[in-house]
């Protein structure tokens, strides 16, 4: 079984490889192909993987190639985990928006739109190459904004592309722990879009146990989302929102905290990782240890401004351990490759599962997964306040898709100006101009770059 990782020099690749090493099952991945445009970063990651593999005589073989077609040929699974414009691009997206007084964030608001406009054309090219040279492969999309990018790729690959995110599974684990429930025995009724979903019920033994949690302030204060949103607000909406909804529900607080921080998240992560990626084969010490130290620093500071604005304190040590990102990917691959039916919260085409959205809209809902891929499970309708937000944000995503596929600048402006967290067309207009100046990749909006 061959797994090709696009964005093979990415910082989270060792998490995926660690999960592959731990997989002792039949039909496991035996070959990993790393594809990346940056050979230096890939070499550092390959060094970490080599150290990880040292203790395993049957570790998956790792090869590296900068050639996309070569990387895709023969792949059973393709992970797409690219970052168009790099962390520098993320930092620029975030800074520009925050300087305009609106949310600057990797995937949410204006920053997420800029990132989407840069990424969709590249993701579509990848989808086309997969169709040409590896039409039987399953594509697992990690690339953010994950819902949008999965939808762009699904227009070419249909249901052979599946988007994943670690936040729903992480929330499920935290909520279950707060209630003393075994997550394996519970049904998590979670629905929405990527980074815009709500846990509406947790069914155990035929009963919804979530209302009991929402009434219990002590239990709510024991986990991240409970502390971020507070009992009063959770009771008002009768659900636990994805942590990214903090940017919507507490927008002013989050923007204030982010604007007063010394640097944006992208700039901070870039700083945190600089020494690690500057390593060479001659650098002293272990690459794996350097990676782990850097990873912990990054995890500890995740959403620090939101936690500060909410007075939520430090992250729990169990949340620093990860286990989300790589485990969703591995569980998904195993279910498909071994026909081991399981349920995972994934980003797939709606096909009628979530009322109020059309069949081709990519949504984030529980799915049944087996050798036939991922099939969404019918979900109860979202309450109006949630559906309204979901429809607004999906319309924004459709504007980005239109801009990226036709080169329409008005569609890009419309997407920016109608996002619920961008409060003025004037701001949208200035931001679009600035993003076009910062990123030559957006030249297509002025008919200047090929798409
Ligand atoms: C979570 C989200 C990802 C996102 C990441 C950002 O894992 O699910 O979609 O990319 O956080 O983390 P970072 O450390 O880059 O801010
Ligand atoms: Mn995510």
UniProtKB/TrEMBL annotation:
Mn(2+) binds at residues 165, 195. Its cofactor is NAD(+). The keyword Iron applies. Residues 190-422 form the Glycosyl hydrolase family 4 C-terminal domain. It comes from the Bacteria. GO terms for molecular function: hydrolase activity, hydrolyzing O-glycosyl compounds; metal ion binding; oxidoreductase activity, acting on the CH-OH group of donors, NAD or NADP as acceptor. This is 6-phospho-beta-glucosidase.
């Amino acid at each position: 079984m061959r797994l090709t990782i696009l964005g093979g020099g990415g910082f989270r690749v060792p998490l995926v490889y660690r999960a592959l090493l731990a997989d002792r099952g039949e039909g496991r991945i035996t070959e990993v192909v790393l594809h990346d445009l940056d050979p230096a970063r890939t070499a550092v990651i390959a060094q970490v993987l080599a150290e990880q593999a040292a203790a395993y005589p049957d570790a998956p073989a790792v090869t590296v190639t900068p050639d996309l077609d070569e990387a895709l040929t023969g792949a059973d699974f393709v992970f797409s985990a690219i970052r168009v414009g790099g962390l520098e691009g993320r930092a620029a997206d975030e800074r520009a928006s925050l300087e305009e007084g609106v949310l600057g964030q990797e995937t949410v608001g204006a920053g997420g739109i800029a990132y989407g406009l840069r990424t969709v054309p590249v993701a579509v090219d990848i989808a086309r190459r997969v169709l040409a040279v590896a039409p039987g492969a399953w594509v697992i999309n990690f690339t953010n904004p994950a819902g949008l990018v999965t939808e762009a790729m699904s227009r070419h690959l249909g249901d052979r592309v599946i988007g994943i995110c670690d936040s729903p599974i992480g929330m499920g684990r935290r909520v279950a722990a707060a209630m003393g429930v075994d997550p394996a025995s519970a049904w998590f009724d979670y629905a929405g879009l990527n980074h815009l979903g709500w846990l509406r019920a947790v069914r155990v033994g035929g009963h919804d146990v979530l209302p009991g949690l929402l009434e219990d302030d002590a239990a709510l204060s024991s986990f991240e989302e409970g502390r971020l949103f507070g009992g009063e607000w959770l009771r008002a909406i009768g659900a636990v929102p994805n942590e990214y909804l903090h940017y919507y529900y507490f927008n002013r607080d989050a923007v204030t905290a982010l604007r007063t921080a010394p640097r944006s998240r992208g700039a901070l992560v870039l700083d945190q990782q600089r020494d690690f990626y500057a390593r060479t084969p001659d650098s002293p010490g272990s690459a794996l240890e350097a990676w782990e130290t850097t990873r912990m620093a990054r995890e500890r500071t995740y959403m620090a401004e939101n936690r500060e604005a909410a007075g939520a304190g430090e992250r729990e040590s169990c949340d620093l351990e990860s286990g989300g990102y790589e485990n969703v990917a591995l569980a998904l691959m195993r279910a498909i490759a071994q026909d081991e039916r399981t349920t995972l919260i994934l980003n797939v085409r709606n096909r009628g599962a979530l009322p109020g959205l059309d069949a081709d809209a990519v949504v984030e809902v529980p799915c049944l997964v087996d050798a036939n891929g991922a099939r969404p499970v019918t979900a109860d309708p979202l309450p109006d306040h949630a559906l309204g937000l979901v429809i607004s944000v999906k319309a924004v995503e459709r504007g980005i898709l239109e801009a990226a596929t036709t080169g329409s600048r008005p569609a890009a402006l419309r997407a920016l100006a109608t996002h619920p967290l961008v409060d003025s067309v004037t701001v949208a207009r200035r931001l679009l101009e600035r993003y076009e100046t910062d990123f030559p990749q957006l030249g297509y909006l002025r008919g200047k770059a090929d798409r």
